[in-house]
Recover the amino acids of this structure.
């Protein structure tokens, strides 16, 4: 007995423990595609287990210790991990939880987000009473409840970045910068509309703001975004393209063809899936066998956000777009959200399997509450903003109603 | 790149260089890509050395030739997206039959985009497709289908028949800010003819009288025009043969003037008969030259059937020089 076996086992056991720890971490990383709220809860639980006192306490001493912990511990760990893992682990989220006295946005950006959210909401709320009077003879697909997704994404886009979207047009178009007057005039079918009255609600265009048209055949415009990104790559332009679509579009062949080609050619395109859980009136469980991001993550990095929280979309969208701009490669952003209205028309949705809590799922209320809490805005300023937008909409309605209809003789113009 | 600088050529014989139809289209694509860096080619097997029957061989800018997966629908969307972003894509299809996979993009997007945006966005997109035929290619590899595209507002449809036309029309198609469906017949690829080495365009929507005659007007496109011409030459018939070159916009004047002169019309179209191009030509004559017609109009097309594989059936199915000649003689005998 030259050796005592146990002496050799000790490092082995330590190694085994380390291996278990590594396995645990990898296992956690595999849950990357879960909703951000879930990740946040997990992060909190892990940190609470690590720390002797609740980290979100308002006590200065605890905050200080949190700060020190943030400064020392995560930084070192982060450096040890690959960048991809760090992204998936979502350190920013943990830092945000550790530093509860800051929002991830400045006052300026917060106000911009709120303004855009309110523009979309108030514009569409104005459509509701006007629509039954038949002055707008065009099918409208209202965006109410889902505003956070295009607003959070468009906050990171330049006018040169191209945005392609589907039939639910008003939200993305206003978020990207379409003039409200042009939009209202298009709904009224007037020559001053964005497509001079030839497009209607579903075909908006604004070349100067990077919207070369929208399409109402579900799925097809996803490929256009990839093509635009391919053009940017071929011409070596410093811009990206964004394909914005709903969960229904992910059932289509053109979606998978586009994902495959974008990954093959490594073009700078962001796929934004605004997942409201409904394909017309069909629940997701009835039209999709597997959550789409589980498959897409094999093709490109997937970022997830709560689509009813504009700050979450802003954060995840910012990470995704920063990745695309830096690497010139495609990425996928998935946002779970809620559709408040029917697929088409101006009535509230009444599907039993689409319960909407207008208090809890409201992106505007969420943002306003957060901004008020962190004193980035006052109630007076919010009231002022709402009134300002309301008067803008008044002006848009007046402008549209006073604009001329197209000439019958121009029927076949630009065929 | 100023495409307006490319001269428009009208004369038939410019120089004495003789090359094949295949080399002519290859040269046109290559010159377009050299001339304008925004021109690029995309399609299944486009980057293959022997891709698209040798018409994509040895290009000067291989980095702008993009081979694609078998995803025709999305790839047409990709080409359109690039066209909207300032590129001039050339989408190539090995067979026109494969374009049926992209009909959503072609009909709902490509054709309508310019109209929906009222010209605020230009769509400089050329979609090339090859018509296959013979050697038992059968029902799914022998389609022609040009009438289907000509039916859609917003699409221009070109069917060149000679090496000279194919280069001029292709460069005109690339120069256009409109979507163009460019259909080439596989059997024309080996034909040779005079082609000027420099770049030139041909006017779009301008038909050509390829043989003068007094007793009958024959309107035929692509290889049918060559067959009709050969039939008339062979039988020494007093027949006028017109090659419209572009199905849409159609040169109505050249057809109507000829019908007014001859009083008889035979529309030859290698496509299915119902709602086809031959029917369109006949309708044109009936609408606008009825009082000049001395006899009912005639059509010579595929039978109302799918394409068979067996060589005996295939021979019975496809029109040919002999069949055209026999039909012309029959019409002239009745006169």
């Amino acid at each position: 007995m030259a050796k005592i076996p146990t002496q050799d086992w000790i490092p082995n056991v330590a190694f085994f423990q380390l291996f278990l720890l590594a396995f645990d971490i990898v296992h956690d990383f595999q849950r990357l595609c879960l909703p951000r709220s879930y990740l946040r809860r997990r992060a909190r639980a892990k940190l609470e287990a690590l720390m002797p006192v609740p980290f979100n306490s308002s006590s200065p001493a605890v905050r200080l210790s949190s700060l020190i912990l943030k400064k020392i511990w995560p930084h070192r760990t982060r450096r040890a991990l690959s960048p991809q893992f760090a992204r998936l682990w979502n350190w920013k989220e943990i830092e945000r939880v550790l530093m509860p006295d800051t929002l991830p946005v400045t006052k300026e950006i917060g106000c911009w987000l709120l303004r855009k959210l309110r523009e979309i909401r108030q514009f569409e709320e104005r459509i509701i009473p006007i629509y039954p009077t038949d002055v707008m003879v065009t099918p409208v697909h209202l965006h109410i409840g889902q505003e956070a997704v295009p607003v959070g994404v468009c906050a990171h886009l330049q006018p040169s970045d191209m945005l392609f979207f589907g039939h639910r047009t008003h939200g993305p178009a206003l978020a990207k910068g379409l003039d409200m007057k042009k939009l209202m005039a298009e709904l009224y079918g007037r020559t001053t509309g964005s497509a001079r009255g030839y497009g209607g609600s579903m075909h908006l265009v604004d070349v100067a703001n990077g919207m070369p048209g929208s399409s109402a055949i579900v799925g097809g415009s996803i490929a256009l975004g990839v093509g635009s990104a391919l053009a940017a790559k071929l011409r070596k332009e410093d811009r990206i393209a964004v394909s914005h679509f709903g969960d229904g579009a992910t059932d289509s062949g053109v979606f998978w063809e586009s994902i495959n080609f974008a990954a093959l050619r490594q073009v700078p395109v962001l796929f934004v899936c605004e997942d409201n859980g409904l394909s017309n009136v069909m629940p997701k469980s009835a039209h999709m066998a597997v959550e789409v991001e589980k498959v897409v993550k094999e093709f490109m990095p997937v970022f997830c956000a709560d689509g009813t929280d504009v700050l979450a979309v802003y954060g995840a969208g910012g990470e995704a777009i920063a990745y695309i701009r830096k690497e010139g490669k495609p990425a996928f952003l998935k946002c779970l959200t809620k559709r408040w209205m029917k697929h088409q028309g101006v009535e509230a949705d009444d599907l039993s399997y689409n319960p909407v809590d207008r208090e809890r799922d409201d992106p505007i209320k969420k943002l306003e509450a957060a901004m008020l809490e962190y004193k980035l805005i006052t109630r007076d300023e919010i009231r002022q903003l709402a009134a300002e937008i309301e008067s803008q909409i008044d002006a848009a309605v007046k402008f549209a109603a006073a604009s001329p209809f197209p000439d019958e003789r121009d029927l076949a113009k630009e065929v | 790149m100023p495409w307006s600088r490319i001269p428009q050529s009208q004369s038939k014989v410019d120089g004495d260089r003789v090359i094949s139809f295949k080399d002519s289209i290859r040269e046109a694509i290559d010159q377009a890509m050299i001339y304008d860096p925004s021109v690029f080619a995309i399609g299944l097997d486009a980057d293959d050395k022997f891709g698209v029957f040798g018409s994509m061989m040895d290009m000067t800018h291989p980095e702008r030739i993009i081979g694609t997966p078998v995803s025709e629908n999305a790839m047409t969307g990709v080409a359109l997206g690039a066209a909207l972003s300032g590129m001039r894509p050339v989408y190539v299809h090995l067979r026109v039959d494969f374009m049926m996979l992209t009909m959503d993009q072609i009909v709902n997007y490509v054709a309508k985009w310019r109209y929906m945006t009222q010209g605020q966005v230009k769509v400089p997109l050329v979609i090339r497709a090859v018509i296959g035929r013979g050697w038992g290619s059968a029902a799914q590899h022998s389609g022609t289908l040009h009438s289907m595209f000509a039916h859609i507002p917003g699409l221009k449809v070109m069917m060149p028949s000679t090496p000279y036309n194919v280069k001029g029309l292709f460069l005109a198609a690339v120069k256009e800010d409109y979507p163009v469906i460019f259909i080439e017949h596989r059997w024309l690829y080996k034909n040779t003819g005079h082609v000027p080495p420099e770049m030139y365009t041909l006017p779009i929507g301008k038909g050509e009288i390829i043989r003068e005659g007094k007793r009958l007007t024959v309107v035929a496109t692509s290889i049918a025009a060559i067959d009709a011409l050969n039939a008339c030459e062979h039988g020494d018939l007093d027949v006028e043969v017109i090659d419209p070159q572009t199905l849409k916009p159609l040169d109505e004047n050249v057809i109507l003037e000829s019908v007014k002169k001859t009083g008889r019309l035979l529309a030859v179209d290698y496509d299915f008969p119902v709602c086809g191009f031959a029917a369109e030509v006949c309708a044109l004559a009936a609408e606008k030259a009825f009082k000049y017609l001395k006899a009912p109009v005639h059509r010579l097309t595929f039978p109302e059937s799918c394409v068979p594989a067996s060589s005996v059936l295939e021979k019975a199915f496809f029109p040919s020089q002999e069949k055209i000649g026999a039909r012309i003689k029959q019409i002239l005998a009745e006169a």
